[in-house]
Amino acid sequence: MPDKTYIYKCPSCNRLFKEISLISGNFSNNKTYSDLKKLPSMRFGAICLMSCFHCNHSFWLNKLKPINAFEPFDELPLKYANLAHPFFADIDAYFNALYSDLCENLNEEFFIRINIWWSYNDRLRANRNMFIDDNDKLDWLNNTKKFIDLLNPNNSSHKMMRAELHRNLGNFDKSLEILNTIHLKKYDKLKKAMINECYNKNNLLFKL
């Protein structure tokens, strides 16, 4: 369900935009993929990289201070009613943020790298080619390797992602080795499916 509507100012072009926060949702029909991304995805996290609709400047929404706020279902004043919403950063914006002063700590680097991974996979979810060209594939490869290094080898959800990333790289034996160390019941179904895909030598995203 929608919570408050917040009014912000773009830190680059100073144009106003609005964003509706969410307090709950029905996730019973979520689709789960092998990269652990669930659809539909919602903005519930405390960290979110967005881009301005007007100037395309990227910023951390959680670091902006709203200039106004309205309760759910309130009628917005006319000057705010038709404001644009920011949009989720795309792959280019994530890479630009990664190598700029926008990325200030490991939590932000983690957020950016997992979203780069998911964004490439979103192309497959949309039945598109995963890579635009060889340079695009190289960018994906570099991010994949660096993201693996960020993941905690003792955390079960991180283990699942490490196993999936190694499967994506075609390192099927390494993926199987990691999967065999995961014993958390909630991952049993996905673990079994990933093991099967490893034996089938499939390195692509799949839906559970």
Question: Any descriptors?
Answer:
208 residues, alpha+beta, 2 domains, 8 strands, 14% strand
Characterize the structure shown.
This protein has seven helices and eight strands, in the order βββββββαβαααααα. With 208 residues, the protein is of the alpha+beta class. Strands 2-1-7 form a three-stranded antiparallel sheet, with no helix packed on it. A three-stranded antiparallel sheet has the order 6-5-8, with helices on one face. The protein has a two-stranded antiparallel sheet with strand order 3-4. It has helices spanning 78-81, 91-98, 106-125, 134-150, 156-168, 172-179, 188-199; strands spanning 2-9, 16-22, 31-32, 38-39, 49-51, 58-60, 68-70, 87-88. The chain folds into two domains: 2-29 and 48-88; 91-199, Serine Threonine Protein Phosphatase 5, Tetratricopeptide repeat (Alpha Horseshoe), CATH 1.25.40. Helix 2 (91-98) runs antiparallel to helix 3 and helix 3 crosses helix 4 (134-150).
Summarize this structure briefly.
The chain is α+β, with helices and mostly antiparallel strands and 208 residues long.
